[in-house]
Amino acid sequence: MKGGGKTYDLSVNPKFGNVSDFEKLSDHEKVALISFNNEVRVYPYFFTNHFEIINDVFNNNNIAVSYCPLTKSGICFNREIDGNIYQILASGFLYKDNMVPADKDLKFYWSQMLMTYIGKENAGKSISNYNLIETNWKTVKEYFYDAKVYYHVKRTAGETDPQLSTT
C-alpha cells in the first residue's frame, strides 16, 4: 500500500432526489446504477467524488458504493462482513494505484480492484459484492426516470444545491 493515509469523510444516511431534479448534470456524466426488486438507485460520480464511498441501506441490503477517480472504476460492496455491519470509508491509501477501502475504525483494509482483503489476518480473503452497472446520465434520464438519485452538496450558508433544479 502507498499513500498518505488521510481518510476521506465518512458518508452515511445518503440523500436522494428524483431524476427530474437534476437538470444541470451533463448527459455524459458517468453514474453507477444499482437495482434491488425493481427499484433503482443512481450514484452520479460527480457527487460520490467527495467521499469516494457511500454507505447505504437499500432494500434491506447494507451496501457501500465505491468510486476510484484514478482508475475511474466503481464497485458495490456488501457491508455485512462475518455477521457484522460496517461503515466503510476511503482510507487514503492506494494499492496498485487503486483506492483502498477500510472500515471506519481502520481495523481492516481491502483492494477495491481485487475485491480481497489486504493486510494481516484477513489477507487474501474475498469480500462479497453486488452488481453495479456503469452508464451515463443520459441513459438514466431516458430509461430509469423513476430512479432515486444520490447527491451530496458541500455548501456554505445561503448557497443552494448547484446541480439541482429545485430544492
Description:
The chain is mainly beta and 167 residues long. The protein is built from two helices and 16 strands. The protein has a five-stranded mixed sheet. A hairpin with a 2-residue loop joins strand 10 and strand 11 (98-103).
Major β-sheet strand ordering: 2-16-4-3-15
Ends apart, CA distance between termini: 41 Å
Give the amount of beta strand, in percent. Answer: 35-45%
Sketch the major β-sheet.
5 strands, mixed
Low-confidence stretches: 155-159
The percent range for helix content is under 10%
Radius of gyration: 16 Å
Find the count of extended strands (DSSP E, 2+ residues): 16
Overall geometry: globular
Count of discrete alpha- or pi-helical segments spanning 4 or more residues: 2
Overall SS class: mainly beta
Average pLDDT score: 87
What letter string, H or E per element, gives the SSE order?
EEEEHEEEEEEEEEEEHE
Q: Can I get a quick summary?
A:
With 167 residues, the protein is mainly beta. The chain is built from two helices and 16 strands.
SSE layout:
Elements: E1 2-3, E2 15-18, E3 30-36, E4 39-44, H1 45-48, E5 53-58, E6 61-68, E7 73-78, E8 80-81, E9 84-85, E10 88-95, E11 98-103, E12 109-111, E13 116-118, E14 129-130, E15 133-136, H2 137-143, E16 148-151
Parallel strand pairs: 4-16
Antiparallel strand pairs: 1-10, 2-16, 3-4, 3-15, 5-6, 6-7, 7-14, 8-9, 10-11, 12-13
Could you name the key traits of this structure?
167 residues, mainly beta, 5-stranded mixed beta sheet, globular
